[in-house]
Amino acid sequence: VIIVPMGGVLIDQMVKAEPLARYAQGGGEPTGPIVDNVATTFDCSWTNAVTPPESPIFTCPVHAPISQRPFDPTGSHHNLNAYDFTAGQGVPVVAAHDGYIVSYHNTYAPFEYKDGSYGNNVVLVATDPTTKKQYCTNYAHLLDVSSVVISKAGKPETIRAGTEIGFVDTTGYTYGYRGKGKGTHLHFGYQGVNQGTPMVLPP
Q1: SS3 21
Q2: With bands split at pLDDT 50, 70 and 90, how would you rate the model's confidence at 158?
Q3: pTM exceeds cut of 0.90
Q4: 137, 160, 169, 200: least surrounded by Cβ within 10 Å?
Q5: Is 19 exposed, middle or buried (0-12, 13-18, 19+ CB in 10 A)?
Q6: Which of 199, 144, 140 shows the shortest CA–CA distance to 174?
Q7: What is the DSSP string of 114-169?
Q8: Are the C-beta atoms of residues 34 and 84 closer than 8 Å to each other?
Q9: Residue 12, H or E segment
């Protein structure tokens, strides 16, 4: 495990030796129904003096069925501005907007369960073009993060919407219909302006 300072935040980085080729798109454990049991918020601290690029959310991070929506009173999202997308293990995840990479975590093995954790995840920051205030998006429970995430994290280097940033899995604090860590999906969360208003997904 290598400890890497990124914008003042210590991030664990361990690139797993097992190749991604093992995880065919759409493969892995059966999906839904999914209960994403994350009970905490993610860190949205951009400490670099350079202002993140202005960008709205204009790309879906993955095109897949939605299993939970923001502030869903019947699931685990009752206090989270986040979506869960049911998708197979290894399906690519892309940035939903232009932005800088605040941080990432990449130490979990496939399907690895841990209470209170987003598992392998990526946090992006951008500036809302209307309010001129910063917001962050979180891409959680990943199999792995992409090489562009590792190379640009904590740096004022823009990645564009649609850039591949990781791959779907179920690492961290998740439940599926087969139990802990069973049910591959993407958790896509939001923090920032209008926090109490459900995030609107692009077409």
Answers
A1: helix
A2: very high
A3: no
A4: 200
A5: exposed
A6: 140
A7: -TT---EEEEEEEE-TTT--EEEEEEEEEEEE-HHHHHHTTSS--B-TT-EEEEEB
A8: yes
A9: strand 9-13
Neighbours of 56 (CB within 10 A): 16
Residue 113 pairs in a beta bridge with: 172
The C-alpha torsion from 84 through 111 and 89 to 162, rounded to 10°, is: 60
Q: Phi/psi of residue 147, each to 5°?
A: -65, -30
Q: What is the distance between the alpha carbons of residues 140 and 168, in angstroms, rounded to a whole number?
A: 8
Number of other residues whose CB lies within 10 A of the CB of residue 62: 21
The fraction of the chain above a pLDDT of 70, given in percent, is: 76
The 10 Å Cβ neighbour count of residue 154 is 20
Q: How far apart are the first and last CA of the chain?
A: 39
> What is the distance between the alpha carbons of residues 171 and 173, in angstroms, rounded to a whole number?
7
At position 55, the amino acid (one-letter code) is S
CA 66 to CA 32: how far, in whole Å? 10
Q: Which two tokens stand for residue 87?
A: 């998708």
Q: What's the CA gap between 159 and 143, in Å, rounded?
A: 20
Q: What is the pLDDT of residues 22-57, one digit of tens each?
A: 233 333 333 333 344 444 467 888 888 899 999 999
| Rounded Cα–Cα distance for residues 18 and 92 (Å) | 17
Which of 108, 89, 77 is closest to 31 using CA atoms?
89
